[in-house]
Amino acid sequence: QVQLVESGGGLVQPGGSLRLSCAASGRDFSRYAMGWYRQAPGKQRDLVATITRGGAPAYADSVKGRFTISRDNAKNTVYLQMNSLKPEDMAVYYCNTNRPTWDWGQGTQVTVSS
User: Fold this and answer.
1) What whole-number distance in Å separates Cα of residue 97 and Cα of residue 30?
2) Any bridge partners for residue 50, and if so which?
3) Selection from 29, 7, 22, 105 nearest residue 74 by Cα
4) How does pLDDT run across 25-48, given as a tens digit for each residue?
5) 106: how many CB neighbours lie within 10 A of its CB?
6) Largest Cα–Cα distance of the chain, in whole Å?
7) What whole-number distance in Å separates Cα of residue 64 and Cα of residue 104?
8) Which of the pair, 74 or 27, is modelled with greater confidence?
9) Vertex 20, ends 52 and 46: CA angle to 5°?
């Protein structure tokens, strides 16, 4: 079973930036399209960005133009560069395949506040 470890979250002011990382154990990472999800308190977990095995990205409308997803298959890692952060981006961020397939990691908290 693949294990996912997210990192890079923190407290940032509105308009600021963060770069999230998600490291996956195991040998299957490159076979899967990956995604970043987020869950705000009291809300469902939503998919905000995906990236195909070949690196083609797609984004939810709420983050389009501000977030960039990328991956490094040699490092079994997927990234989420988040710019122009807004208070409504505040959530716990998780990665998984785009289905999702694997057990969830612990996530990384993103707090956007002045």
Assistant:
1) 10
2) 35, 58
3) 29
4) 987 899 999 999 999 999 999 999
5) 11
6) 41
7) 24
8) 74
9) 60
